[in-house]
Design a protein that fits this description.
3% strand; mainly alpha; globular; two-stranded antiparallel sheet; 9 helices; single chain; 2 strands; 68% helix
Length: 179
């Protein structure tokens, strides 16, 4: 185990970067814009789950974690702008991990309420890509949403797989909207 920063090759090459420094670089304006977007996304579906609420502290934690990951990605790889699929994937990762949608006191823990954060993570990712989904109009979408919600709730999906899925879904959505 390393006990000295000088022995860590990443710190030796790039220096120590604190989350606070990363977030200052991102800026409060961008953080607030993402929080407002996610609050709007939450407001679109929360009527389906009357026994839940959005915890603003956990939502901010998810957004800040997202921006720290995106900043690190840009810092360690020679990219100027992260594509929309990665933005959606990282958003989904952190919403599913932090779970900012909480059950109200007295809410019975039925399975759909327990998995609401996985559902919210998926819907937010799709909304970032401007993919409009009606799970009641298409059997395939209903199955995909169920399976992906389960995956996001119970497993740790890789960013690469989420990014690829978002790219495929966007291409399918674009093709559907053209024809």
């Amino acid at each position: 185990m390393r006990n000295n920063d000088d022995e860590d090759p990443i710190i030796a090459k790039y220096g120590r970067i604190s989350p606070e420094a990363l977030l200052r670089e991102v800026g409060e304006k961008r953080i607030m814009e993402r929080l407002v977007f996610l609050e709007k996304a939450y407001n679109l579906f929360h009527d389906k789950w009357p026994g839940v609420y959005m915890n603003p502290y956990l939502m901010r934690e998810a957004v800040e974690s997202y921006f720290c990951d995106i900043y690190r990605l840009k810092f360690f790889r020679p990219v100027e702008r992260i594509n929309a699929y990665k933005q959606a994937a990282y958003t989904m990762k952190w919403l599913a991990r932090i779970r900012p949608i909480q059950m109200c006191d007295g809410t019975g823990p039925d399975l759909s309420t327990i998995m609401v954060n996985g559902y919210f993570a998926l819907m937010a990712g799709l909304a970032l890509l401007d993919i409009d989904v009606d799970p009641h109009s298409d059997k395939w979408w209903a199955g995909y949403i169920t399976e992906t919600t389960y995956l996001l709730h119970y497993h740790s999906a890789s960013i690469e797989s989420l990014c690829s899925e978002m790219g495929v879904l966007k291409a399918l959505d674009d093709a559907k909207n053209k024809g």
